[in-house]
């Protein structure tokens, strides 16, 4: 492929991934309401994802998500909305599924929230002049914030450094726990859509990482290599956020 075409292809990939990731962040951000459900139906989600998934887990997750959305009317009644809201609360709010959307709970040896991974991620955000708006309500290591940050990196990736940062962030943070989160959600929630969404999110970011390995000509490190790398990182102190990650507000 000529260099110009390669650059164009990479640019299209970056923009596609940035938009898809923001879409995932939106769906994990709050309860499914009537207007959003209508938009999903109109867009033929998840067929509307711009990155075509190739892996078997990716295709299976697409199928589950598609069937889940087909079971929800485009104009749902209140009972349907209440059932979806209960599922959302069990996954993201009250720990009913025991599937925390925050990294610390999965990584910390005692399963505690707001531990070292949160502060590591806060330091990464700060390098780009970013921070969450209210980390006490939704910590820095929450799934929504991580997806938003990755979207930011892809959208503003002017060179190889940003793509390397995206690969490193996926390796050291999101990919260390999102598959466990997805499996737990899929085995707990009542709505097929939320099961599919969790599985699809995990499959999607995994395939994005595989693509980055090819683009950067650097193989993905093993889980053991990542664990060793993270053990060598020193803990960081607590610092209050001073700005906000674009789109991190509850009204995003």
Describe this protein's structure:
The chain contains ten helices and no strands. The chain has helices at 3-29, 34-43, 56-70, 78-93, 103-107, 116-127, 143-155, 160-188, 192-216, 223-231. α1 runs antiparallel to α7 (143-155). Mean pLDDT is 90; it is low at 1-5 and 236-252.
Secondary structure blueprint with pairings:
Blueprint: H1 3-29, H2 34-43, H3 56-70, H4 78-93, H5 103-107, H6 116-127, H7 143-155, H8 160-188, H9 192-216, H10 223-231
Helix pairs in contact: 1-7, 1-9, 3-9, 7-8, 8-9
In short, what is this structure?
The protein is mainly alpha-helical and 252 residues long. It is built from 10 helices and no strands. Helices cover 64% and strands 0% of the residues.
Distance between the termini: 39 Å
Q: Percent range for helical residues? A: 55-70%
Order of helices and strands: HHHHHHHHHH
Low-confidence stretches: 1-5, 236-252
Tell me the β content: under 5%
The global form is globular
Main sheet properties: none
Number of helices: 10
Rg over CA atoms: 18 Å
Structural class: mainly alpha
For the secondary structure, the number of strands is 0
Mean pLDDT: 90
Question: What tags apply to this protein structure?
Answer:
64% helix; mainly alpha; disordered C terminus; 0% strand; disordered N terminus; globular; 252 residues
């Amino acid at each position: 492929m000529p260099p110009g075409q390669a650059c164009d292809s990479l640019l299209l990939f970056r923009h596609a991934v940035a938009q898809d990731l923001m879409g995932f962040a939106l769906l994990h951000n709050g309860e499914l309401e009537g207007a959003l459900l209508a938009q999903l139906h109109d867009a033929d989600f998840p067929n509307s994802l711009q990155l075509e998934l190739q892996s078997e887990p990716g295709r299976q997750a697409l199928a589950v998500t598609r069937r889940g959305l087909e079971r929800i009317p485009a104009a749902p009644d209140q009972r349907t909305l209440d059932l979806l809201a209960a599922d959302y609360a069990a996954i993201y709010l009250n720990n009913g599924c025991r599937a925390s959307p925050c990294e610390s709970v999965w990584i910390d040896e005692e399963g505690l929230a707001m531990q070292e991974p949160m502060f590591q991620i806060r330091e990464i955000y700060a390098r780009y002049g970013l921070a969450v708006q209210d980390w006490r309500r939704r910590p820095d290591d929450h799934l929504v914030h991580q997806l938003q940050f990755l979207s930011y990196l892809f959208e503003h990736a002017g060179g190889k450094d940003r793509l390397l940062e995206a690969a490193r962030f996926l390796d050291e943070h999101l990919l260390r726990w999102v598959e466990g989160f997805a499996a737990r959600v899929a085995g707990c929630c009542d709505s097929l859509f939320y099961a599919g969404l969790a599985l699809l999110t995990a499959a999607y970011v995994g395939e994005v990482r595989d693509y980055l390995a090819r683009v950067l000509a650097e193989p993905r490190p093993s889980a053991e290599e990542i664990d060793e790398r993270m053990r060598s990182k020193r803990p960081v102190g607590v610092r209050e956020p001073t700005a906000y990650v674009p789109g991190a507000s509850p009204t995003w």
